[in-house]
Amino acid sequence: MRRSPLGIVVASVVAGSLCVLSTGTATAASGGGTRPTPSCPWVGSTAPVATRVGELMARMTTGEELSMVHGLDSNTDASSSGPVYAGETAGVAALCIPALHLEDGPAGVGDGLTGVTQLPAPVALAASWDPGLSGAYGAVIGAEQRAKGTNVELGPTVNIVRDPRWGRAFESLGEDPYLAGQLAAAEIRGVQAQGVIAMVKHLGVYDEETLRDTPSDDAIVSERAMEEIYLPAFDAAVAQGGAGAVMCSYNEVNGVPACQSPYLLAQVLDGQFGFGGFVASDWFATKSSAPSVDAGLDMQMPDSCTYGAALAQDLADGTVPRALLDAMVRRILVSMFSAGLFDQPAGGDPGTPVSTPGDVSVARLAAEEGTVLLKDAGGVLPLSAHQDRSIALVGTDAGPGALTAGGGSAAVTATSVVTPVQGIRGRAGTGVTVTYDDGSNPLQAVQDARRADVAVVFAGLPEAEDQDLATLELPPGDDELIDAVAKANPHTVVVLNTGSAVAMPWIDDVAGVVEAWYPGQEDGSAVAAVLFGDVDPSGKLPVTFPTSLLQLPDRSPFQWPGVGNIQYAEGVFVGYRAYDAQGETPLYPFGFGLSYTTFRFSRPEAWITPSGDVEVEADVTDTGTRSGADVAQLYAHDPSTTGEPPDQLKGFERVALAPGQRARVRFTVGAGAFAHWDSGRHRWVVSPGRYELRLGDSSRNLPVVATVTVPGELLVGRPTPLPPPMASPLASAPADAQCPKDVVAPAVNGGLSVPSDLWSVSGRPSPF
Ligand code: BGC
To answer: Going by DSSP bridges, is the β-strand pair 218-220/252-253 parallel, antiparallel, or unpaired?
Structure first.
């Protein structure tokens, strides 16, 4: 036993059943800088950013400063011809201040621009659990944005998938704040290394579309749930990723518009997370002038409805002191100088084709690494060109209608798409018969499937911004088609293209299931490589797959989609945290994914470092006959007295191994890994007690356990000075009738509210 300076004691390390994982067939299973000029000495200067900003601002008029804090109204003019950026600021030529060009988004260059690479959806990136890949993904986005003349990338999206029906689940990084935060930080570093500012979005607690931008779009959420679930990914994006900008969201949080929330913008983002960049509103989400300025909103996008003439008036009559405008502009300039926007401005324009072969390779790699093998019975996969002499491909999603991207601002127009039919035909070679039925004639499809050695049905569930899904079911007819093909051929594999979890009523009747998400333009190449085993499927689920809607943690209508507001009554019990706490067995758990080989965890050790951190180590061995990759996952298990969910992700590492090869994984966690948010004291606290660190390769397969005893209370990190507003359920922000809105969804139930003890769904009481 060793005592750490923090008072943590590692009491024991227990290796449970060490044999883990996998049923697979093989084993049973730019440019130069600019020189300073006399007129703009801050350009190309080597002075510290603060000095350069100071020099520049000393020369700026109020009007010039004002022009930097809002979008160009012309940009919102639908009649303008040719491609334009999603948002633009004016720039000040006389002072060499470049215009800002803001463009979506998180899956590649969006907004209908062409000649770009359609990367796999961010949820696929999340399924790779690979920060290195995330950095490469970000670098592709940054480089293509820059070549388009963009200098602010509108991504990544780090909102938590609270419910798989969320229309934007595909563009997020999953249901776990740690996973999302680590991947976002790596992606942001990749984007910003290209000289483009990353704008992480949408702060905060924005997790559904149904009530978006209606008076009921108000997340009623506890301080603890915000701090533990909804905000940590922003912390990582800012503190570890160094994001230069943050986008605040449409919704209200506890009755206060997010873009006008001193709690979110000043207290948490700046005070707690140490953010020094600028905050811009989501499109048409600026609700006011002076109150938003006071709260910490630095830029209105994409127009000037409140930060133009209205703010000018507020400044003129003293409602907004000039010092506040200075502070806003300073923050914008700090990010611009830090990203090199003055010294190495982005060239190019929206019409330039920018996709490169290297970018397409990253798209393919991400699609391969993100693919998750969920079921592989009887050795159906990988396909073999020797044994599988005939392959029947079925479903619109395998052909020209392949679902490779989600919709809305994260949609990306592919330069060209390799469809699954093309990819699989190319990989199978001439000796293998590959038939294709789009499913419009189910009898024909079933007949072809019956005659083939193996049938692969492709099924997609489209998702898009502005609209949540009504169910977890595939589109009408798809489940029936899968059933019919599975009855005709026992070697039926289903490939899913979905943005999040989907129900699988046919799961017991099919031999294999592959979740390929929205795989981007390299769809067919990647899926062929995985199906034929050229690539070992190593993706792990970044979201839990429930058996049905009834298992969801937010199953009362007051929680989803909300009635008059959105009650986050499940608190911190989101995603796997809820399933674990309720003892529910989901269809597939968070962190789960099979491989064509097998892995074993062994030789666990844990100790305290001189600096008081806990280190946990173990060997991961590829015990099969093929190369493959596993993701070691570390979860903290707190004493039940803390009120925390049973297991929470605190570390992960993807390891690629050859057969028989062994790698040692090591995780170092500080006391913060055992902390929970104390809403009474507004800070992170570690309660005394017995904790565990559990290591394995899925949230439900954690064979290695290290026990950690904390003898006395520990305080971690900085407290926040004040509690957040905790609105009454009926509170709502004043409507701003003057400004344009983005989307007006139909109001639901006219602002009713019902006490929480009446909640139940289908006769099942809410557990919360
Ligand atoms: C979305 C943002 C996006 C913006 C600009 C909004 O509707 O919520 O994510 O960046 O539009 O396209």
So the answer is: parallel
